[in-house]
Specification:
Two copies of one chain form a homodimer. Chain A is of the alpha+beta class. Helix content of chain A is about 35%, strand content about 20%. In chain A, a hairpin with a 4-residue loop joins strand 7 and strand 8.
Chain lengths: ~475, ~475
């Protein structure tokens, strides 16, 4: 990214010298200052975002987090909260340079939430559970499932992504069309604000209108207002009966129209995913995915329904009715009859991230379009990218009813932002959002003002100053 | 309420003299200064909350709202935003006295949003629509229905309550268990903050993570941070097939357990409402409701399922299975076979507010309990009330899976808060929330600090100061 230095810099100070109280607060075992040990926390999994931390600190309680925040505030040391480190916009790893972010010192610590991994007993009547920030999505799903319930969010990084990170980024994923985003799962939160204040409401009933909803404000704030330490989340009924179909579609417009009609016909619709033959080819090549049809299709639509009884007959009926129309654009269809077959179809979509990663380090753009403009975007994005970066490859997939597309660009160097810019300009031209579910992080800071109205930005800055007056929380992220 | 003067006071100033620009901004027809015309805006529908406004101002656009806010800010005049005036905690009508709220002047205007009644075309693919703050819930429901979709919120005051007021109070109602509260319906907002800043994002796609989520922050802020002028809301599939049953239950515990089990068996469950024989008796007496059973029952549970096909067989099967257990506590059951019968059963629950109103001016408390403590609350609340107010009658009903009970106390004078206090103390003792869906308003200001942690209150005050630096928006409401 222009203006950022890509050579990791050595901190000006030794962590113990600058923050002598750290070991007392969290214990010597949980202050990781050795560069070799720190290294895994200083780079994201794409390898594209990296920096240097004074130390990695792993508090074991909300009180320890508050003490660490107060200590850092006293020294004007930045804090980069980190969960499962599955973010894609540089929001959870140290920045290459802090001075530009207006923080007094260049240094920051990484505050890892992995030890905050407590999981309360499931409140079965209310359908809620309290989870520590460090609990992984998979652990939460498993815990809910053991009580005969489920968690409404799911996505590919489930084994690593944590509750805290999912709140900070307002994670979305594949079930948003039925259950909403992470923000909509929250009924209570515990967090430490930038001034060291502990906010806490983990026992409230589901309906609770007693002032500003801090869980919703912290959701999507990307660690810039507070460090989430725990949350009370809603659970949903567990739906053990599923059916999955992949449809070969005549184009994106046909896929959008069919998904929207299917949603009205089947309230059991839980996912509607879009991908294309180039991405499918990578999944076939690298992950052993099986092509669902003998011929390549202009677009692929994967739909899943879930219910308490077998939903396959209803899906078959609905698809038959929808495919019947001349303009429906359904060219072919494959239905999964059992768990293995369902997983095989899902791999075609969920394997995209991994398969693309086998080809190199992609530029990952996560945008959302008005649903009616998805087709125009897909038609134009490849050309927009190659105009900016000749020879670059563009692989697109996403969540069709959310208007959310993941655009992966391969070819340009890590610090060549030309193709990224082309994708984001096209998004704005079509009335879309520059970040659907990954957040702004560092990657899109200079884009925020192009997407959001001046009044919105002024309000956000006022809130940031109110809750993190010294700007020590995730400096440089989101608001720059 | 102790400390508040109940005699409406005469403003110190004439509106035109203090705010000479008002008529220029909104037009002379929309500045209502005549006391007789103002009167309907100065008292809530229970008759319990009232005050005097300098004038009632009805802007016709967001720009006019912003101009009015800036004008009032310059004169330190308070602004009481008002939608359909169906609030129950004094948050939408002028206070008896402003001086106590720390505003320089005692006066405030009422800013009525009723002219902001535009409704955009339904975006059918995205399932969203933009609605002005003054659009009523019924109008929004009708508009969504015309496009083959529905709105996820419903409650008794649907013909008067407005989108703006529903956002300000984060309205709940009878479908929260399936679709969430008003906050969870919002994908974009337009509002004017206390410093006159216009925030606006009405065209964003459903998934949009570009900074702090201002719609969620404004939802439930009770007009103290900004005046909502429009919102983009999610719509849900329209479910035209419904079935309703009323069950006679052995007690609250049995009703809670059955509803929770039913929710897991039927994802189509849309409402689970609780009421008792005393409230039912009032609906029978005043509204012509028909008793569903020959004998009075210890508790009544109304459940509704909604689907794209007839859900009655599934409901019958599920209830038969659940009622079969010895401990199920199902004493009797009545099922509605057609629309008329469904409406007749719903009247028994939805008629409570009206029927109670025919008996006098009730003290209306809206609380939420952990679901597992609903039974203890219901057992104790009547005794707690009569201990504080001998001879008072307590009628309880509510939304069982939300833990949300509406407690109506009849007997005590309007300014006698003894019974109110007893209800709220009991709520806190049982780990509940002092406001489930009505908000804090004026009624519960002194209770907020008993319910919320000091850190939460500090964060809320910091946010209030950040977005309404002069404290002109709904002075005295929520944070006092």
């Amino acid at each position: 990214m222009p203006g950022l230095r890509w050579t990791p810099t050595t901190p000006d100070h030794d962590a113990m010298q600058l923050l002598p109280g750290l070991e007392r607060i969290v214990g010597a075992d949980h202050v990781l200052a050795d560069p070799a040990v720190r290294a895994g926390f200083e780079v994201d999994w794409t390898g594209r975002w990296r920096g240097v931390a004074l130390a990695v600190v792993r508090p074991g309680s909300v009180d320890e987090v508050a003490e660490v925040v107060r200590l850092c505030r006293g020294q004007r040391v930045g804090i980069v909260p980190q969960g499962g480190n599955t973010g894609l916009v540089g929001g959870g790893v140290p920045r290459p340079a802090y001075a530009a972010a207006g923080v007094a010192r260049r240094e920051a610590i990484v505050l890892s939430t992995t030890r905050l991994s407590g999981l309360g007993a499931v409140d079965e009547a209310a359908g809620e559970v309290v989870a520590g920030a460090g609990v992984t999505l998979a652990a939460l799903q498993h815990h809910a499932g053991s009580a005969g319930l489920a968690f409404g969010i799911d996505f590919g990084a489930r084994d690593s992504a944590t509750v805290g990170g999912m709140i900070a980024t307002n994670a979305g994923g594949i079930h948003v069309l039925r259950h909403g985003t992470m923000r909509e799962q929250l009924s209570g939160i515990e967090a430490v604000l930038g001034d060291g204040t502990i906010v806490r409401r983990l026992e409230a009933p589901r309906k609770d209108n007693t002032g500003y909803h801090l869980p919703s404000l912290l959701a999507g704030s990307e660690g810039t207002l507070g460090i989430v330490t725990a949350a009370r989340v809603h659970l949903v009924p567990r739906l053990d009966h599923r059916a999955v179909a992949v449809l070969g579609m005549a184009g994106v417009g046909a896929a959008v129209a069919l998904a929207a009609r299917l949603r009205r016909m089947l309230p059991t619709l839980e996912a509607a995913e879009l991908f294309f033959d180039d991405g499918l080819g990578l999944v076939v090549r690298h992950l052993g995915g099986l092509r669902p049809f003998s011929e390549p299709q202009p677009a692929y639509l994967l739909v899943e329904v879930a219910d308490v009884a077998d939903p396959e007959p209803a899906l078959v009926d609905a698809l038959a009715e929808l495919a019947d129309g001349e303009d429906a654009g359904v060219l072919d269809a494959a239905m999964a009859a059992d768990t293995t077959a369902r997983e095989r179809l899902w791999l075609l979509r969920e394997g995209h991230g991994d398969a693309i990663g086998r080809e190199g380090v992609p530029h990952k753009l996560d945008v959302a379009l008005p649903v009616g403009r998805l087709e125009a975007f897909v038609e134009r994005v490849g050309g927009a990218v190659t105009a900016a970066a000749p020879g670059a490859r563009t692989i697109v997939f996403g969540h069709v009813l959310d208007g959310n597309l993941h655009v992966n660009v391969m070819g340009p160097a890590a610090d060549d932002e030309g193709a990224d810019d082309a994708v984001l300009w096209l998004t704005l031209e079509l009335g879309g959002s520059i970040s659907a579910e990954h957040g702004i992080g560092i990657a899109k800071v200079r884009w925020l003002a192009r997407d959001r109205a001046p009044g919105d930005l002024a309000a956000m800055r006022a809130i940031k100053t109110a809750l993190d007056p010294d700007g020590i929380l995730n400096p440089g992220v989101l608001l720059g």
